Amino acid sequence: MAQKMLIYSFVARGTMVLAEYSDFMGNFIEIALQCLQRLPATNDKFTFNMDGHNFDYLVDDGYNYCIVSVESAGRQIPIAFLERIKQDFTNRYGSGKASTAVALSLNREFGPKLKEHMQYCMDHPEEISRLAKVQAQVSS
């Protein structure tokens, strides 16, 4: 896919970013962090829209997963990305390492994983869309 739809992501414990990834520079990083400060602690999904970008968040048990995407990316691929990184992060760090990690201390390990998941979601949008539809059906 020629256009980069997914441009920045991070995983945070509360408001402390543990790992992040982006190929780009821009004020979207500061905006994403400002939005993070406003998230309620309830487990849910949230979207903020600003300057042609969507800021999607998945809040789950004290951890916040974020993806910033271009508005034209829609909602399915970013939300599927958040579910993928939540699962991967939980599998890797659910046994406790993330609960004591300091800011950006997981960046070296998990930053490349964020990049891989972003690339996979952009390279396989049809598969991601199909999976999102199935998950939606299972949820309902």
TrEMBL record:
Q: How does it sit in the membrane?
A: Single-pass type IV membrane protein
Instruction: Give one GO biological process term.
Output: protein transport
The record's listing under SMART domains reads: Longin
Instruction: List keywords of the entry alphabetically.
Output: Membrane, Protein transport, Transmembrane, Transmembrane helix, Transport
Q: Does tRNA processing appear among the keywords?
A: no
Does the entry feature the keyword Signal, yes or no? no
Classification via InterPro entries? Longin-like_dom_sf, Longin_dom, Synaptobrevin-like_transport
Q: What does this protein do?
A: Involved in the targeting and/or fusion of transport vesicles to their target membrane.
Q: Which PANTHER family match?
A: SNARE PROTEINS, VESICLE-ASSOCIATED MEMBRANE PROTEIN 9
Q: Name it.
A: Longin domain-containing protein
Q: Which organism is it from?
A: Vanilla planifolia
